[in-house]
Write a structure and sequence with these properties.
CATH architecture of the largest domain: 2-Layer Sandwich
Shape: elongated
CATH class of the largest domain: Alpha Beta
CATH topology of the largest domain: Heat Shock Protein 90
Distance between the termini: 85 Å
Mean pLDDT: 87
Largest sheet: 6 strands, mixed
Helix content: 25-40%
Number of domains: 4
Strand content: 15-25%
Number of strands: 18
Structural class: alpha+beta
Amino acid sequence: MLIEGKMVELKREYVDDIKKTAAAFANCDGGTVYIGIDDDGSVCGVPDADATMLRVTNALRDAIRPDMMMFVDCRYTDMDGKAVITVSVQRGTARPYYLRDKGIRPEGVYVRQGASTVPASDAAILNMIRETSGDSYEAARSVNQQLTFEYCSTFFKKRGLVLGSQQMRTLHMIGEDGMFTNLAFLLSEQCTHTVKLAVFEGSKKSVFKDRTELSGSLLEQLESAFIYIDRYNRTRAEFQGLDRLDSRDYPVVAVREALLNAIVHRDYSFSGSTLISIFDDRVEFVSIGGLVKGMSLDDIMLGVSALRNQNLANIFYRLKLIEAYGTGILKINESYSDSAIKPSIEATSNAFKIILPNLNYTKENGNKAEEVRRPLTSSSKKEERFETVVSLCKKNGYVIRKDIEQTLHISQATAILLLREMVADGLLTKKGTAKTLRYYLADF
């Protein structure tokens, strides 16, 4: 006699709840629904086996997404001389399976809990998505499948591109299962990731002058953020004889590339906002997600690029927002090539910051501004740090960047600048690349 359990469901006759149970089996470890057997295990049979099988298969095919029919075997079985329909469901490979009219949310996604079929929790739904979609956030199925793309379509059209269902598949906005991916979610009006911008008085985060938060399609956030920053990117006028020379606080190229970097390369598997802070002497771009695994800040400074969001970057490339991978940081540095003060980059395990100094602030405030943004310009402190590095080299035979960070208690970016300056001054020589990069005393 059959008994209901985690992988067995008994039904006296066909009922609508069979759809929930079949989806739950596909979301868990599989199972079988027996139609024509009462809850106590007694066989009562079904009056019309063919009609019942047709009804079951049509219901599962029409009501459940993604299509799970390749994991379903519906057949007639004779038990005690009576017709019983067995609906065997295997564990699916495109979980979570959900009721089409409910969507990917607890009221639409079901799992087995003992002998019961119950709604899945939000955490369980996300775990199923991660398990079946791999590690890439942008390739995973979007939890929200009710997406609209008005702004995105208009943006594409302005650049002579079409955004139809076929193009969405090519761009990986629609996955092989016919469902929207997180990449589509990021470009839709329903995107919940935001960019927060703030303008502060002076050089500290103490007094707000203005602030805003941008939401919606990343393309809309990109355009709105650029316009907002440009509003505070003043023009300074100088006169040389009869000629007027205008200069912006920040090179437009640098602002553009830093903004694109913050949006294209951030880690969207986290829910925090991208932060852009505008001070009197600088603007900071902070995005969630540190360096891609295996990359170092030295690699980034050399123009080496490892994409966290390959498909998103490809779309931005097609839209001609980025020219080539890995050139953004180089363009930022080139835009400051004629300035004594340079941009800086800081990176932690979970964040990436680009700091663009205000060129006009430097001109207007002279050495004071230089000291604020370039602590290494203090000759006494510089010599002290140089001596520490030299001592480490003599003691160990060589140094690596992390030795400098830990010994001097400075950031990764400051350590890189310090080592570069010592190499330029002829005090150190470097050998190796990336992880094997070491610095030796020049006379060794």
